[in-house]
Write a structure and sequence with these properties.
The protein is α/β, with parallel strands linked by helices. Helices cover 32% and strands 25% of the residues.
Amino acid sequence: MAQPASDEIILEMRNITKQFPKVLANNDITIHLKKREMLALLGENGAGKSTLMNILYGLYKPTSGTIILEGKEMEFHSPRDAIHAGLGMVHQHFMLVETLTVTENIILGTEPGKGGVIDYKQARKEVIALAEKYHLHIDPDAKIESISVGLQQRVEILKALYRNAKVLILDEPTAVLTPQEVDELFVVIEALQKGGVSIIIITHKLEEVKEISHRVYILRRGEMAGECNTADVTKADLANLMVGRDVVLTVHKEEKKVEAEPVFTIRDLRVRNEKGIDAIAGLSLGVRPGEVVGIAGVDGNGQFELAQAVRGLNEINGGTFEFKGKDITGLSTRERIRRKMAYVPADRQRFGLVMSMKISENIVIGFHDKEPFVRGINLNLPEIDAFSKKLVKDFDIRTPAVDIPTSTLSGGNQQKVILAREFSREPEFLLVSQPTRGLDVGAIEYIHSQILKMRAKDVAILLISLELEEIFALSDRILVLYEGKIVKEFDPKKTNDKEVGLYMTGGGDKEQAS
């Protein structure tokens, strides 16, 4: 629960407008932040949250409007200006040098010393004192590459505090944390508030907004949609303000008895990463028709290598894949797709779409050389156009036309293009990796419903997600991936996020799942 905030206003952003060449990202937005306050910023993808915070942090210059910090009007030309004024920002993707120590990362660019000689002993002492003050317990001599994601986040927070941040911006701070690490972060936030730090958090997790924030600003399409005292609103209220309609927050999954043999099986899979280390170390699993098997794990435990191997995109060092009882280990990605295996990749822009191509072209890619999309040696453009328009309607893809570049769509609509393409091919096996990463509650609601529709059609689904809430909502079985191995299997109805989180970090009895 958030600590009480002061009535003293430390920061104001007045009438902020940001006009990009073709997009009005922020339109006359005014917010304020009190001392020791925990302020949440909510909104759909493209609502203008990140733009607003990037203006505050000096990454963008506003088209119009003013920033007032502690009663003084400020103009930031760069993050350096913002940092000097007392602002700090912890980005979702950390900006740390892995080969340096905790202390070296924290002091980087502001090293104490004289005549070009760094006083490392003094720096280390200052880091320890700062960590103790805010309960950010961490080894000052540990190298970044050897510590957990949660501890790396602490280093980022300490970097900001070392530079005397009075206002701290946290961008999706719990996106890659386990439930235990989230609890630890909330303890840290409480200590920061007690120490006089004011915090703005960008998040899409409504449960967290309710738990730790005092007030919430909701942006929609670049404009202010509402301001609420957190205690006065429900999660449903917040979701409705974000998207402008009623949103179903609870996933309703029908009970289903699955007794058939697996459609898709992995046996003793071994995959080395680019450093030559085993990223997948003897992994075995099976997925039955109409079953969602969820892979839970902290990022970096082999999820990427597993997904790439299942898609046939990287070399494996041992093991086999079977689909409907036949060995497909040596088949190419194209051959796997033609056998009714479908894929929704984690990085939609890098692996799922060709951003410069038209929406219609992305929808038929992979089958563009098959009837009815070809006529002789030429593409059957009328058929491609008609098919694409049908899917745009069926999957509620928000676009004025199917012949515009996919790059013009929002993240949620880009994801819908991939779902439309993959689901329309009537697959029997579906790999879905990070299906709602970076998406808002409206898009998440829709994508979850589409995945469950595929489950109802007896598609075997392997779900890889860093969002435990998503894993629990969709999965019939949960497999915990740790250091490239399945260390535990759970029935989601007989466990909880804390127990699963314990195994995600290497705790528990590490029992191999079958």
